[in-house]
């Protein structure tokens, strides 16, 4: 149940890029890309404050115990890196790249995580699903070659956890940033 809850929270981040898309489709003018960028920064600042309070022991909320993994107890938790990854994607890329990069994290990663925790033991199968989901997410936004590049890098970020100075770099940071960067590079080359 803890994994399902964690993945539900993960997927809830889809609200921001989807709200932006809905607003753009309806031409409502409520949630512009610039306002979304500011919301992302605000969310990252809140996450940073919460992490500082959690890591210093000033706050000990049950939600932290429920939603963080054991290896995050003394390190920056995935939700903070999630906020940073979303914010970088929102600021580094235009909407046609930033939105699918964010959705790769908020949709692709939870699906991959549920499959991994749900007994699908073959990691290769999980990665194939991650690649397919991320590619399908990106296709409506960018050219096929860019969508495939973004999906490939997001999938690699999901499957390979680099270690820097003894710290595992969480895919919550690398999926949106790597996927977005790959799409941007391919689009610039086309």
Report on the structure:
With 190 residues, the protein is an all-alpha fold. It has one domain (2-189). The protein contains nine helices and two strands; from the N terminus they run ααααααααββα. The protein has helices at 2-12, 15-26, 33-55, 62-67, 78-92, 95-117, 123-138, 144-159, 171-189; strands at residues 163-164, 167-168. Strands 1-2 form a two-stranded antiparallel ribbon. A hairpin with a 2-residue loop joins strand 1 (163-164) and strand 2. The longest helix has 23 residues, at 33-55. The protein starts with a helix and ends with a helix.
How are the SSEs placed, and which strands pair?
Blueprint: H1 2-12, H2 15-26, H3 33-55, H4 62-67, H5 78-92, H6 95-117, H7 123-138, H8 144-159, E1 163-164, E2 167-168, H9 171-189
Antiparallel strand pairs: 1-2
Helix pairs in contact: 1-6, 3-5, 5-6, 5-9, 6-7, 6-8, 6-9, 7-8, 8-9
Question: How would you briefly describe this protein structure?
Answer:
By secondary structure, this protein is an all-alpha fold. The chain is 74% helix and 2% strand.
């Amino acid at each position: 149940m803890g994994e399902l809850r964690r993945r539900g929270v993960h997927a809830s981040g889809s609200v921001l890029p989807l709200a932006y898309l809905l607003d753009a489709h309806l031409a409502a003018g409520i949630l512009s890309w610039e306002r979304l960028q500011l919301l992302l920064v605000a969310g990252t600042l809140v996450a940073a404050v919460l992490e500082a309070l959690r890591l210093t022991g000033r706050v000990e909320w049950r939600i932290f115990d429920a939603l963080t993994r054991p290896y995050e107890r003394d390190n920056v938790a995935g939700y903070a890196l999630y906020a940073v990854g979303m914010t970088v994607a929102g600021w580094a890329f235009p909407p046609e790249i930033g939105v699918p990069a964010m959705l790769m994290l908020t949709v692709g990663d939870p699906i991959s995580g549920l499959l991994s925790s749900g007994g699908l033991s073959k990691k290769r199968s999980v990665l194939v699903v991650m690649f397919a989901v991320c590619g399908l997410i990106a296709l409506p936004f960018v050219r096929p070659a860019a969508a495939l590049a973004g999906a490939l890098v997001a999938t690699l970020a999901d499957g390979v956890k680099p270690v820097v100075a003894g710290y595992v770099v969480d895919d919550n940071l690398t999926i949106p940033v790597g996927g977005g960067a790959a799409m941007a590079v391919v689009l610039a080359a086309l």
